[in-house]
Amino acid sequence: MNYFNFYNSPLGEMLMESDGERLLGLWFEGEKYFNNDFIDKSKDKDLSIFQETKEWLDSYFNGDVPNFTPKLAMDNSEFRKEVWKILLSIPYGETMTYGEIAKIIAKKRGLLRMSAQAVGGAVGHNPISIIIPCHRVIGAGGNLTGYAGGLDKKVWLLEHEGLDVSYFSFPK
After folding, report:
1. What is the average pLDDT score of the chain?
2. 67 classed as catalytic
3. Total domains present in the chain
4. By CB distance 3.0 to 4.6 Å, which of 3, 48, 67, 168 could disulfide with 142?
5. Angle in degrees, 0-180, between the axes of helices 78-88 and 116-124, rounded to the nearest 10
């Protein structure tokens, strides 16, 4: 059985999903790629993993760099897990491009190149917003492309982490 709980963030309500021990998902309400049908098959419960996640989020939204990570479930393809692990390595207040991530994966796999678009697909389908910091990934040349939670939230999160977003270019 899976469980869910809610967190009220400065950016709106967030939904957490767990298998009882690990965090499976953390989404903003209305986030792209989020299918809330699981709520009908889940139970609302205040589990310790939800308490840990709320503590992490409270710390983050209070402007601190959380010094722990809740137990995360990254049950997906090897490629997506590889991308999400790289996202976890991007320091607070810093960014990385899709192309940079693609180069890391290509090098690790012994390939000449890797598709930045494939990386973008994996980043976009990250089920654990903020904690797996997909908001820190930007396009080539500082282009602020895509964020499943909405570009306004991506900008807010980057500014919250101390980045000057005026250096980035916005999609037209």
Report:
1. 91
2. no
3. 2
4. 168
5. 80
